[in-house]
Design brief:
The complex is a heterodimer. Chain A is an all-beta fold. Chain A has no helices and ten strands. The chains are: A mainly beta, B mainly beta. At the A-B interface, β5 of A face β4, β5 and β10 of B.
């Protein structure tokens, strides 16, 4: 069965970076885009960007341009989302989702606190 | 960016009631719209794709309609397990954008 398994919760200081992983199984990793969506506590969903695991092409929301980098390692079917220059407002649960949004990771809580 | 205006932001209804949520796009998105259900502490679950197509395994009491800028999501007979927050999402243009969500509660 298709699964997306994300890395565990992180606590970071303001100004630091975080890298969240999303390991895919049960399908051909390079056949579907990976999207990243975040959700602050008690808030709505916010699309951050997408990556094509086959080509490595990416597209980011303007809000995150310059701070987010989405990469992949096809040999281990894993996608990564790195967010830099963290601030308190980046505290949220970060989700990966397969291209058509039928499958989602379980979410990774990133807490930014001094 | 395309703005997705979802209403109401919350509603309270009785078991068996018909529940309707609307989503309005700030520009034509054809039928490139998803509807999700999210329960606390869980990832969103895709219910409807391409505005009106029921995802496999989703109960038939859920439905979606609309195209262009105006969309509707309906629960034909509200069940206790439907308590959740529902979101629309457009994927016609980048950045993809979500509605603000509708929290559905039992009266």
């Amino acid at each position: 069965q298709v699964q997306l398994v994300q890395s565990g919760a992180e606590v970071k200081k303001p100004g630091a970076s975080v890298k969240v992983s999303c390991k895919a199984s049960g399908y051909t990793f390079t056949s579907y885009d990976i999207n990243w969506v975040r959700q602050a506590t008690g808030q709505g969903l916010e699309w951050m960007g997408w990556m094509n695991p086959n080509s490595g092409n990416t597209g980011y929301a303007q809000k995150f341009q310059g701070r987010v980098t989405m990469t992949r390692n096809t040999s281990i079917s894993t996608a990564y989302m790195e967010l830099s220059s963290l601030r308190s407002e980046d505290t949220a649960v970060y989700y990966c989702a397969r291209g058509e949004y039928r499958y989602w990771g379980q979410g990774t809580l990133v807490t930014v606190s001094s | 960016d395309i703005q997705m205006t979802q209403s109401p932001s919350s509603l309270s209804a009785s078991v068996g009631d018909r529940v309707t949520i609307t989503c309005q796009a700030s520009q034509d998105i054809s039928n490139y719209l998803n509807w999700y259900q999210q329960k606390p502490g869980k990832a969103p679950k895709l219910l409807i794709y391409d505005a009106s197509n029921l995802e496999t395994g989703v109960p038939s009491r859920f439905s979606g309609s609309g195209s262009g800028t105006d969309f509707t999501f309906t629960i034909s007979s509200l069940q206790p397990e439907d308590i959740a927050t529902y979101y629309c999402q457009q994927y016609d243009n980048l950045p993809q954008t979500f509605g603000g969500g509708t929290k559905v509660e039992i009266k």
